[in-house]
Amino acid sequence: MPEELRALGRSLDPPGASGTESMVERVLEQILAEQVPVPVAEPSGPATRIRSARRWTRQRWRSLTAALCGLLTVLVLTPPVRAAVVDWFGFGGVEVRYEPSEPHASPSPVPGCEQGLTVAGAARRAGIEPLLPRELGRPSAAQVSADRRVLSLCWDNGDGEVIRLDQFRATLSPLFWKSTTVPYEPVTVNGDSGLWFAEPHRLELALIDARGHEYARTVRTAGPTLLWEDQGEQRTLRLEGVESRERAEAVAESVE
Known about the structure:
The protein is an alpha+beta fold. The chain has helices at about 1-10, 25-30, 45-75, 80-90, 120-125, 245-255, and strands at about 95-100, 140-145, 150-155, 160-170, 175-180, 185-190, 190-195, 200-210, 215-220, 225-230, 235-240. It is elongated, with a radius of gyration of 24 Å. The two termini are about 50 Å apart. About 30% of the residues are buried. Keywords: Membrane, Transmembrane, Transmembrane helix.
């Protein structure tokens, strides 16, 4: 267990951390410095041996519990590590990682809704009623992913520029993976949490079949994106194609 905790501590170190030991490791070393004493031999006998084993187990469990509590304390009280934990647990079906050492290419054009579905047709196929932003008016087209988990709405201004709004039921397991070289900015949309990505970042989308097995994955470089959760609808939304954070927030807040 101590070795596993140390490995976890190393994986959660913030980018640019120096030294041979992570902050989490140093705290764990202090917590684990006092070793649990080895049980002292007592007169033999079944009852005595059972009591001794139980006492040793309780002491060992207290030691490991203390180590875990110490690790959690570090995670809660240390901002850089706390940020890494947020990335690790993800964001309503989206896993976000801050990786400043991995440069990304220029963003690819925002993909349109090639299926050309109507909003009503997309709703029937996905099994959810889409949330629509008043700020953008009626979508030009809609689309549903092959696994029917992601419903997308598109607005095409006629000049080849597309605004795309993806939405899906918030899940614990990620559907989207985002990797960014620039720290994202926390935002609030109608009282719910959100993230603004001002710079190009790596985006992956995994498609899952009915048995929960991944059968396809797309990867591209996305441009400025607003990501947020609608707690009331238990849905995660992703808006791409709006360059300004203020404008993106206005669109998000008009969703109903």
